[in-house]
Amino acid sequence: MDKAAGWQVVDEERARLAGVLRELTPEEWRAGSLCEGWTVHEVATHLTMAALAPNREVLAASVRARGSFNRMIHDSAVRRAALRPPETVVADVESTVGSRRLAPTTFWRDPLLDVLVHGQDIARPLGRRIVMPVDAALTALEWTWVRRFPFFPARRFRGVRLVAEDADWQRGTGLELRGPAESLLLLSTGRLVALDDVTGPGAERLVVARG
Is the pTM of this model over 0.90? Predict the structure, then answer.
């Protein structure tokens, strides 16, 4: 997938996610997401920040986090979500459609990865379904392995070979773990809920490790 096609998918997925968010109940906005310690409200808010948050806000969050990337990302979303009710967050997500603004040090594949994975973080715990386009999932999956930070999938899957069932893609060496590109993307970014979607001795090894 090239840059133009990638941005088109980002726009489509942002619009689709806004539609899902618009239908949520207040209880669903407060529900936990697949991101441990994050609510649906906070994840949805985070998705708008690269496109909408002023640089000074991000800089202040970095200073408060004292160099911790994960703390900075989490705390900045929590602070912003506290000031933006759900209906405002929906409007914010809608307003990012067409935006090409990137957070510092990121590339176009990063917002693609974000909207695909965080869409699942929101939808799956609520029993809702957002189907990823296979080519987009594959592009984000490859980017996760090439970029490494912050998920380091090669380290996570040492001794396991991931094989996509719906695309010509595989990474790693060792026990085979086979599944859709969407599920491999979720696993590569730490979402172990996707173990329910994959098969093979590599999957069995990870289930044992998780348990």
Answer: yes
What domains are defined for the chain? 3-126 (1.20.120.450), 137-210 (3.30.1050)
Ranges 26-30, 73-77, 143-147, 177-181: which has the least confidence: 73-77
| Cβ proximity of 165 and 91 under 8 Å | no
